[in-house]
C-alpha cells in the first residue's frame, strides 16, 4: 500500500518557511522559476551550520580526509569519462495533447496526486468498474478536470472497450489498467496507452532525457566549446586525486571531501526543495586498498559479523567493512544534528539495481511528510571512476605502496597466484565492459595484476554522497511542532515551535532586555550581545512584550533566550550580573524552563551547547 502523505504538515511547513524567511521561491516577483529556491535569512544560517558541521566532521576532525573546492564547469571530457554524457538521463514522456513533460518512471505516483485520477478512484473503488457513473462523470466534471482523457473526448467508444474487457474478466481491474483503459480511444490500433497525469491525454513512449545543463565557454557558441554545469561534485575529486594525494601527504586509505553546487535539469522538480534543478551536495570519496592488496598485507580480510558500527578502522578492512563503517558514520552524523535513527531507514539496493561497477549501495532514507525518500547514498564503487579517468585522460591513477611490495615478496606462490588471479579477473571484467577486445582486455589486465608485485594498484572507493537541501528540508519538517496554550482568560491559541538541535539552529541565542525604555537594561543587554556576537549567530530584540519575543524565537527555532532584567542590574544584590536563560526545550513539558546564570559563565555555557 502507498505510504500516507502528510500534505497538511507540508503545507504548514511551506507557509512557515516563507513567513519566517527560511525558504523563498527563486525569482518570486517574476512568477518564480520551477525547481529553483532561495534561502532567506534563517534558511541561510541553517544551511551554513549544516555545511560547517559536515565539513568539520568529515575533514577537520579526521586525520584521513582532505578537502577540495573545485570549479563548477570542468573539461567536458570528464563527463564523457564518467558516463554522464551517455547515460545520465531520466526516461521522459510528452503528453500529445497538453504537451507537458512527465518523468515516465513517476507517472503513476503523480497520477494518484491529481484530481481526475482521484475522482476515477472514487467512482470505481478498488477497480470495480461502474460504467454508468463513469459516463455521467465524463459528461460533467470530467470535462473540466480531464479534458483530454479518451473517456471524456469519446465516452461511448472508450467505455465500450472497457465493457468488453470487463465481460471477458469480471474481476475488479488493477487501478493502473483502469486508468490506461480510460485514456485509450483506439484500443485495436494503439493498445493500452499511458495517461498524462495532468490532463488525461496520451503520453508518448519514454525517451532518455539527459539531465545535464549545457553552456559554452568563450565568446563563440559551438560544439567545440560546449561544456556542462556539473551534475555532481564527485568527479572533480577523482580528477584531482593525484594532486591531492601528492600535496596532502595522505596515503590510502584516505578520503577527499568536497561540497558545493550541482545542477540537474530534472524533468519534474517536485516536493518543494526535495528535487530541485540547482542544489548543493556534500560528497566524500574515500579511497581504499583493493581487497587483494589488503589480503596480501594483512593475511585475511575482516568480515562484517555484527550489526552496528564496526569501530575504529583496521588494517584488515576490505571494502565491505569500510562501506559498513561509512554507513554507520553517516547515520551517527544525522543523529548528532537532531535526526534520530527512528526517522531514518537504510535501503540496501538489490544486486539487479546496482550499477555494473558497484559492489553495494545503501540509500539513507528520511521519513519526509510526502514519503520516505533518499537523503544520502553510500556506494562502494570499486576502482571504476579512477580507472575511467586513467583510461580517458591517459594519465596514470594508480598508487605505489611500499608496504604492498614488501608484503608481496613474503607471500607463498599459491597465495600470490590466487590474489593475482582475482585482481586480474576484476580488471579484465572492467576492461571488457569499456569495449576493449577480449585479447586487449586480457593483456591490459595482466599488466595491472603484474603491478601488485611492484606495489602498484588502483584504489577502490566508498562514496557517501549527501544533498544539503534535502537535509535542510528534513531538519525543518522534523523540527516543526505546534503547541496549544490557554491564557488566563481561557482563550486557546496554537503556535509553532521549531525544535532544531542547537548545533544547527539558525539563531543560537536571543538577547532580550526586559524593557526597552530603561536605558540601563538596554545598555547591559547590548554589552551581553557584544560579548556573545563574535562566537555565534544571535538576535537582539527589544520590541514587544517579553512573551511575544519568546514566541517569535520559538518560531525561528532559537534554543536559548537570555533576558536582562532588574536583578541583572542588582535589584537583588545577590543576582547582580546574572541573566535568565529560557530554554526552548525539546518537549512540550520542558518548553519555557528558565534558569539563572552569571554573565561570566554565559559564553562557555552556550558554547558547550551550540557547537
Ligand atoms: P534521486 O534518485 O532522488 O534522483 P540520486 O540517487 O540521483 O537521487 P545521487 O546522484 O546519488 O542522487 O546524488 C546524491 C545526493 O544528492 C542525493 O542523495 C540527494 O540528497 C542529492 N540530490 C540529488 N539530486 C537532487 C535534486 N534534484 N535536488 C536536491 N538534491 C538532490
Explain the overall architecture.
The protein is an alpha+beta fold. The chain folds into four domains: about 45-75 and about 220-400 and about 460-470, 2-Layer Sandwich (BirA Bifunctional Protein, domain 2); about 90-210, no CATH class; about 400-455; about 495-610, 3-Layer(aba) Sandwich (Rossmann fold). The protein is built from 24 helices and 23 strands. Strands 3-9-10-16-13-12-11 form a seven-stranded mixed sheet, sandwiched between helices. It has a five-stranded mixed sheet with strand order 20-19-21-22-23, sandwiched between helices. A three-stranded antiparallel sheet has the order 5-4-6. Strand 17 (about 480-485) and strand 18 (about 490-500) form a beta hairpin. Helix 2 packs across helix 21 and helix 7 (about 130-140) packs antiparallel against helix 10 (about 155-170). The radius of gyration is 30 Å and the shape is flat. The site of adenosine-5'-triphosphate has 16 residues, from strand 10, strand 13, strand 16 and helix 21. Adenosine-5'-triphosphate binds near residues 232, 275, 276, 281 and 375.
How is the secondary structure organized here?
Blueprint: H1 7-20, E1 23-25, E2 37-39, H2 41-60, E3 65-67, H3 76-81, H4 84-87, E4 89-94, E5 101-103, H5 107-111, H6 115-123, H7 131-138, H8 141-145, H9 150-153, H10 155-168, H11 175-182, H12 187-190, E6 207-210, E7 214-216, E8 226-228, H13 234-239, H14 241-248, E9 254-263, E10 278-288, H15 291-298, H16 319-336, E11 344-348, E12 360-368, E13 371-380, H17 384-393, E14 399-400, H18 402-410, H19 413-433, H20 438-451, E15 456-457, E16 460-467, H21 468-479, E17 480-486, E18 492-498, E19 509-513, H22 519-532, E20 538-540, H23 546-556, E21 560-564, E22 578-583, E23 594-598, H24 599-610
Parallel strand pairs: 3-9, 19-20, 19-21
Antiparallel strand pairs: 1-2, 4-5, 4-6, 7-8, 9-10, 10-16, 11-12, 12-13, 13-16, 14-15, 17-18, 21-22, 22-23
Helix pairs in contact: 2-21, 7-10, 15-18, 15-19, 19-20
Bound molecules: adenosine-5'-triphosphate.
Amino acid at each position: 500500500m502507498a505510504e500516507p502523505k502528510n500534505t497538511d504538515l507540508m503545507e504548514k511547513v511551506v507557509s512557515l518557511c516563507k513567513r519566517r524567511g527560511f525558504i523563498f521561491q527563486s525569482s518570486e516577483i517574476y512568477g518564480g522559476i520551477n525547481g529553483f529556491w532561495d534561502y532567506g535569512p534563517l534558511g541561510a544560517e541553517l544551511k551554513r551550520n549544516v555545511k560547517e558541521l559536515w565539513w568539520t566532521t568529515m575533514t577537520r576532525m579526521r586525520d584521513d580526509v582532505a578537502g577540495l573546492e573545485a570549479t563548477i564547469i570542468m573539461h567536458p571530457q570528464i563527463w564523457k569519462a564518467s558516463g554522464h554524457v551517455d547515460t545520465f538521463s531520466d526516461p521522459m514522456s510528452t503528453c500529445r495533447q497538453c504537451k507537458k513533460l512527465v518523468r515516465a518512471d513517476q507517472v503513476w505516483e503523480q497520477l494518484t496526486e491529481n484530481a481526475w485520477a482521484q475522482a476515477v478512484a472514487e467512482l470505481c473503488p478498488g477497480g470495480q468498474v461502474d460504467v454508468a457513473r463513469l459516463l455521467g462523470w465524463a459528461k460533467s466534471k470530467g470535462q473540466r478536470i480531464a479534458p483530454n482523457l479518451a473517456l471524456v473526448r469519446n465516452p461511448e467508444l472508450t467505455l465500450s472497450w472497457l465493457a468488453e474487457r470487463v465481460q471477458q474478466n469480471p474481476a475488479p481491474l488493477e487501478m493502473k489498467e483502469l486508468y490506461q483503459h480510460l485514456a485509450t480511444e483506439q484500443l485495436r490500433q494503439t493498445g493500452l496507452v499511458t495517461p498524462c497525469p495532468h490532463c488525461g491525454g496520451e503520453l508518448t513512449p519514454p525517451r532518455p532525457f539527459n539531465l545535464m545543463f549545457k553552456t559554452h565557454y568563450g565568446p563563440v557558441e559551438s560544439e567545440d566549446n560546449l561544456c556542462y554545469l556539473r551534475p555532481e561534485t564527485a568527479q572533480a575529486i577523482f580528477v584531482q586525486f593525484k594532486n591531492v594525494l601528492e600535496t596532502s601527504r595522505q596515503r590510502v586509505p584516505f578520503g577527499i571531501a568536497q561540497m558545493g553546487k550541482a545542477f540537474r535539469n530534472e524533468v519534474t522538480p517536485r516536493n518543494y526543495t526535495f528535487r530541485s534543478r540547482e542544489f548543493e551536495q556534500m560528497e566524500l570519496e574515500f579511497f581504499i586498498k583493493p581487497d587483494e592488496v589488503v589480503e596480501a598485507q594483512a593475511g585475511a580480510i575482516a568480515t562484517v559479523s555484527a550489526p552496528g558500527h564496526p569501530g575504529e578502522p583496521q588494517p584488515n578492512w576490505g571494502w565491505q567493512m569500510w562501506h559498513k563503517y561509512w554507513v554507520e558514520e553517516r547515520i551517527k552524523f544525522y543523529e548528532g544534528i537532531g535526526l534520530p535513527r527512528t526517522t531514518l531507514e537504510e535501503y540496501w539496493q538489490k544486486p539487479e539495481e546496482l550499477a555494473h561497477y558497484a559492489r553495494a549501495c545503501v540509500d539513507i532514507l528520511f521519513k519526509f511528510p510526502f514519503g520516505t525518500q533518499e537523503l544520502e547514498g553510500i556506494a562502494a564503487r570499486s576502482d571504476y571512476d579512477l580507472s575511467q579517468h586513467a583510461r580517458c585522460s591517459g594519465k596514470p591513477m594508480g598508487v605505489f605502496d611500499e608496504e604492498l611490495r614488501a608484503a608481496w615478496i613474503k607471500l607463498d606462490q599459491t597465495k600470490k597466484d590466487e590474489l593475482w588471479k582475482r585482481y586480474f579477473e576484476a580488471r579484465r571484467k572492467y576492461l571488457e565492459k569499456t569495449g576493449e577486445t577480449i585479447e586487449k582486455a586480457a593483456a591490459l589486465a595482466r599488466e595491472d595484476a603484474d603491478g601488485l608485485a611492484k606495489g602498484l594498484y588502483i584504489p577502490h572507493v566508498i562514496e557517501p554522497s549527501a544533498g544539503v537541501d534535502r537535509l535542510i528540508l528534513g531538519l525543518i519538517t522534523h523540527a516543526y511542532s505546534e503547541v496549544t496554550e490557554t491564557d488566563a482568560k481561557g482563550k486557546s491559541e496554537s503556535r509553532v515551535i521549531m525544535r532544531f538541535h542547537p548545533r544547527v539552529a539558525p539563531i543560537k541565542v536571543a538577547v532580550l532586555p526586559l524593557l526597552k525604555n530603561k536605558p540601563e537594561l538596554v545598555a547591559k543587554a547590548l554589552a551581553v550581545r557584544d560579548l556573545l556576537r563574535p562566537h555565534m549567530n544571535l538576535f537582539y530584540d527589544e520590541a514587544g512584550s517579553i512573551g511575544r519575543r519568546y514566541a517569535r524565537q520559538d518560531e525561528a527555532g532559537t534554543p536559548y533566550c537570555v533576558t536582562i532584567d532588574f536583578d541583572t542590574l542588582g535589584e537583588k544584590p545577590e543576582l547582580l550580573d546574572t541573566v535568565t536563560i529560557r530554554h526552548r526545550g525539546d518537549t512540550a513539558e520542558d518548553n519555557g524552563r528558565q534558569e539563572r546564570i552569571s554573565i561570566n559563565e554565559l559564553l562557555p555555557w552556550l558554547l558547550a551547547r551550540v557547537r
